[in-house]
Amino acid sequence: MHVDTLILVADLLGTFAFAAGGAYTALRAAKLDIVGMIFLGVVSAVGGGIIRDVLIGNIPPIALDVWYYLVVATAGSLLPMVLHRPNRLLKMTVQLFDSVGLSLFCVVGAVKAMSAGLTPLAAITMGAITAVGGGVLRDLMVKRVPEVLRTGFYVIPALVGATIVVVAGVVDVTSPWASLAGGLAAWLLRMLGVWRGLQAPSAPTEAAP
Amino acid sequence: MHVDTLILVADLLGTFAFAAGGAYTALRAAKLDIVGMIFLGVVSAVGGGIIRDVLIGNIPPIALDVWYYLVVATAGSLLPMVLHRPNRLLKMTVQLFDSVGLSLFCVVGAVKAMSAGLTPLAAITMGAITAVGGGVLRDLMVKRVPEVLRTGFYVIPALVGATIVVVAGVVDVTSPWASLAGGLAAWLLRMLGVWRGLQAPSAPTEAAP
Amino acid sequence: MHVDTLILVADLLGTFAFAAGGAYTALRAAKLDIVGMIFLGVVSAVGGGIIRDVLIGNIPPIALDVWYYLVVATAGSLLPMVLHRPNRLLKMTVQLFDSVGLSLFCVVGAVKAMSAGLTPLAAITMGAITAVGGGVLRDLMVKRVPEVLRTGFYVIPALVGATIVVVAGVVDVTSPWASLAGGLAAWLLRMLGVWRGLQAPSAPTEAAP
Asked: Quick check: pTM over 0.90?
């Protein structure tokens, strides 16, 4: 299989997993109708990429410019209709796809931001936003403090993956190997985080200005 | 009266109604000062169109590019200052305008998105976002799970109206009749929903991944 | 010191103060990890300017296009790590910088919006959004009704400052004196508000449609 096809397939698997995970999360947090469930699933899946595309001037965003992202995201959002109580295998599968999506999204986001001429620091930020933006939007809409801001080892893998790609780009290593390394690092860190229950250090709670 | 004038008048009535309804809804949900009330009323009225315009690349958004949208929206937001406890007639009037706004916004959003070259599915999405985006933004800011995601027959009329317009556009019926049919269908469905208390089917509540 | 340098220094001081104030506010409202604290501090500092830049078509937004805004904002966000319980002097310093940032941001926002060809009313709105947008985004993410919508004398100084600049621009006074007058008016009003505990009038609380 051609490498571009491989990336597209992985991208769509990630989109599906983000949508499914997003729909389950939204349902746990709020009473919704079907339209709301689909809407929040789709937002979880494509929200980060849309924010990135708007900020780097890639308008209309890719998720609105080709048909398959919305279709795959809608399909993923419908999973809770089919499987009310996902079993252990499904949970692990969604989590695996989700971590693949995370790795891919942070790399793709950083690469696109560099191509658009953003500074390295902004490109790293864009990588992380691509990976976590959709989940943040979803959490806002179901009235939760975004999960990625409170707990869990999610933003850091995305930042690390994006940083590897951007640093490689700055020192002029634009080969696909840099993207591969960045994505792999993000994925391994995320898997490690899931497996060991890693957390970013807490911010000082007693801060009171 | 010329048809463009007619559309503009309906558009501004819809904007006024969205702003007034938005201000009342915001006040029910949170203690606000006058500035907050106006801000949330204006966001309710022009938020959906602004999101659409940013996503399709129509920048600056039309609501910021001509003066009358902001003026009409501000005027609508001030209605709660004049009428603290709107009577039955006013409520019905606001609801009528609101449904007119809904119908018009979903059609206009879909047409503009098609003109901008988005895919049919994305154009339908843009139609719905134009109609419900402002209300979603407002609900976020007063810490409510957006009403349209939980309950009520609001997104579905918008989707139906936009779909009619987009399907007609795809089969190359670009006459104003398609827009009229789409808007009328959305309006009738919404009115039916209000009258009969229709709801979209609930999403599975017991979903727990 | 050249006037442009002076403005840049004031802008970065404002960015630092917005980030520090934003991080403290976020920590008071929610339990966060370090990543979340930095994220919300940065959003507080650059969020308003990014919204403005997207809406006026200045893409990529300036905060992503040069490196120092993100660096200064990140540095400001880290202040709660160093000073858990800021003393009175620090609080006053942050508040002073914050009011300087407010004055500067509303003027800069209005000037940029006018240059981009927006209508006067939209330019005033953009000035206010530049000044308060970041704080609104932050409050959304920690599940608070945005402070500026509920209470306090914050939006009004921003609107007054932006209005002075825009009116001067409309009557063709494009000299830096207009910007200075607008910024000074916003700053004095804000300081007066802090000092005297001024509030915008409450919206009618008994409104119930």
From this structure: no
